[in-house]
Write a structure and sequence with these properties.
CATH class of the largest domain: Alpha Beta
Distance between the termini: 128 Å
Strand order of the largest sheet: 3-2-7-1-8
Number of helices: 5
Radius of gyration: 49 Å
Largest sheet: 5 strands, antiparallel
CATH topology of the largest domain: Alpha-Beta Plaits
Number of strands: 8
Pfam family, one: DUF881
InterPro entries: DUF881
Order of helices and strands: HHEHEEEEEEHHE
Protein name: Division initiation protein
Helix content: 40-55%
Structural class: alpha+beta
Shape: rod-shaped
Keywords: Coiled coil
Family: Belongs to the UPF0749 family.
CATH superfamily of the largest domain: Protein of unknown function DUF881
Strand content: 15-25%
């Protein structure tokens, strides 16, 4: 009678021990997991991070668009500067130009021996022709390949005429870009300077051209004493 009782007690103890062990493992498992409140917090934080990332991506896209616009603006500004520089170089005579105009050929009369006299055409004669052409609207001029600028000197030097410090000899070929008819009329006007030169034996031929090519100035542009004035 005692053995069955002991056996029953042992069986109940075993079952009770198994229940305790199972309860302990379940409690440990719950303790090792994530609490419900913490899980909700992490979910909210995840959504916030996703929103922040979306905002950052939008800001990055906006900045990229602004950079592209800045590049376009810089390119446009560069094009404007290049255009202005081209105009300045053209006005300064540093660019070869072409267009309709006239060619004026001035030749000394022959001397007694049949040769040419270097003393007939004077520097002021050429200056007068240049001024008449400029007054008639000539936009660019040259003499024997020398570009005429506002600073160009035209002066007699012995048997020659110096232009831009370059010695020139006759015949003098003056090229002028502008309205051909207006330029030609300004020189050939009755009682004008060409008539005066012809009366003194100098040959002056004025020919209209559909295309005149005036070279660029190739000398030195340097200011030793002149400086930009300070405003204010």
């Amino acid at each position: 009678m005692k053995k069955p009782i002991y056996f029953s007690i042992a069986a109940v103890s075993l079952v009770f021990g198994l229940l305790i062990a199972f309860q302990f493992r379940t409690t440990s498992s719950i303790a090792g997991g994530v609490p419900v409140d913490r899980f909700q917090e992490l979910t909210i934080e995840k959504k916030q991070v996703e929103l922040d990332n979306a905002h950052l991506e939008q800001e990055a896209a906006d900045l990229a668009a602004k950079i592209e616009e800045a590049k376009k603006g810089r390119s446009q500004a560069s094009e404007v500067l290049e255009s202005e520089l081209s105009k300045i170089r053209m006005y300064a005579g540093l660019t070869p130009l072409s267009g309709p105009g006239v060619e004026v050929i001035m030749e000394n009369p022959p001397d007694k021996n049949g040769g040419a006299s270097f003393y007939s055409i004077r520097d002021e004669d050429i200056l007068k022709v240049i001024n008449d052409l400029r007054g008639a609207g000539a936009e660019a001029m040259s003499i024997n390949g020398q570009r005429i600028l506002a600073t160009s000197e035209i002066r007699l030097a012995g048997n020659h005429i110096n232009v831009n410090l370059v010695r020139l000899s006759p015949p003098y070929h003056i090229l002028a870009i502008g309205n051909p008819g207006t330029l030609k009329s300004s020189l050939e006007i009755k009682g004008g300077f060409v008539e005066y030169l012809s009366a003194n034996g100098i040959t002056v031929a004025v020919q209209q051209r559909e295309k005149i090519e005036v070279p660029a100035y190739n000398g030195s542009l340097k200011f030793d004493y002149a400086k930009a004035a300070q405003r204010g």
